[in-house]
Design a protein that fits this description.
Helices cover 35% and strands 38% of the residues. By secondary structure, it is of the alpha+beta class. Pathway: Cofactor biosynthesis; molybdopterin biosynthesis.
């Protein structure tokens, strides 16, 4: 399950989407907007992407996860687009599996791959009315 949304991410709904009777573990990652960066007060983030390309990359990540980790149940990746206020989720990942080790490792692998390969761009908007598009260091290392 892969989603790009302009709406607030419903964590509970997406956790329920990965529940399976055969899986005893669900591992999640939630990336939220923090209120600071390098001594600047952040008031919100703004995300943009090329939807079809981002969705293709998210699909690739799901396939990589299935090849790398045995016995995964369901995978859910949600990335928010548009404006994301402080304390709200920008990205949500949930992975179910029969045992915790695979779920935890797969969730970590997933967020690292999302950051490294998915073309989603982030702008930080500061309290002083300035803003800055942020370079995704993981993405540039992976594409260099």
């Amino acid at each position: 399950m892969i989603f790009l949304t302009h709406n607030k991410i419903s964590v509970a709904t997406h956790i329920e989407a990965v529940v399976l009777p055969s899986c005893g573990a669900i591992s999640t990652f939630i990336g939220t907007t923090r209120d600071n960066f390098n001594d600047k007060k952040v008031i919100r983030l703004e995300y943009e992407c090329y939807n079809s390309m981002a969705l293709k990359e998210l699909e690739k990540i799901c396939l990589q996860m299935r090849n790398k980790f045995e016995d995964l149940g369901r995978v859910c990746i949600v990335h928010r687009l548009g404006l994301v206020p402080v304390c709200e989720a920008s990205v949500f990942i949930a992975v179910s599996s029969p045992h915790r080790a695979a779920a935890i490792a797969a969730a970590e692998f997933c967020i690292n791959q999302v950051k490294a390969t998915v073309p989603i761009w982030k702008k930080e908007i500061y309290e002083d009315a300035t803003s800055e598009w942020k370079e995704n260091k993981e993405f540039f290392r992976a594409t260099s």
